[in-house]
Here is the input.
Amino acid sequence: MGAHHHGHEGHHHHGEVTRSFNSAFAIAVSLTLLYVIVEAIYGFAANSMTLLADAAHNLGDVLGLVLAWIANWLLTLPARRRYSYGFKRMTIISALVNAMVLVATSVLIAYQSIYKLFHPAPVDEVIVMVVGFIGIFVNGGTSLLFMRGAHDDLNIKGAFWHLLGDALILAGVVISGAIIYFTEWQWVDPLAGLIIVVIIMWGTWGLLRDSVHLMMDAVPRYIDLAGVRDYLAQLPGVTAVHDLHIWGLSTREVALTAHLVIPKGCLNDNDYKVINEKLYHDFKISHATIQVESGCADVPCKPC
Here is the structure.
């Protein structure tokens, strides 16, 4: 006998969150794309490779945000005949792609910074600082739109780190521009770029690690596997728990399947309701499928 419980409360909450972040994505994509255009124009005007490189980096981030936005929107679509869980997996794919884009752009920035250490070029520092200041407010402000979901959703975390990383890059651009303005130390600009790359990579590593784990159907990092097993094992009549599997359906929804050995008795509908509510509220597991067995030695996994 088995039960599959989705949890109305959890789905209602996920739907509300998804809709709110769709608005955040719309604002972030619009403002960031507008800033990319402005930054590219003034990058040419100031003869600033730093601004042009950051404009290219920001353009890549816009594409990453669009991808994350599409994945977030797909969460609102109902399940289909072939896609019985809907399109939730796209959020994991999007998180992984965003992490890889961050790594790739960080490598490019590091390369450019090292190149500029040996080939410094004069720029219009005033334009660089003004455009950089504007970018800090644009990227820093839009990153705050995703801060609320950055802890629980890798897709949202990817968007958050994209925007926050851009703000950090531009802060370095402004500071290095000010130092060069007063001292004419051209090597400060590429050095600041290398420091920023280290900061971005530090923030991206967790995103890359967790998204790869989810792609491999590993137990999500925030799930207490031992706690779940102990809870199921102490249920009345349960003598053993086996075939316990926990994996991420998306970057914010977790599924579980488990076999409970109950030699005497069985679980009723109320028991399943209590178990699923406990799994959702205490362990953040929203999809649970439980199979009960009598434990006959000659017939493994014999249904109750």
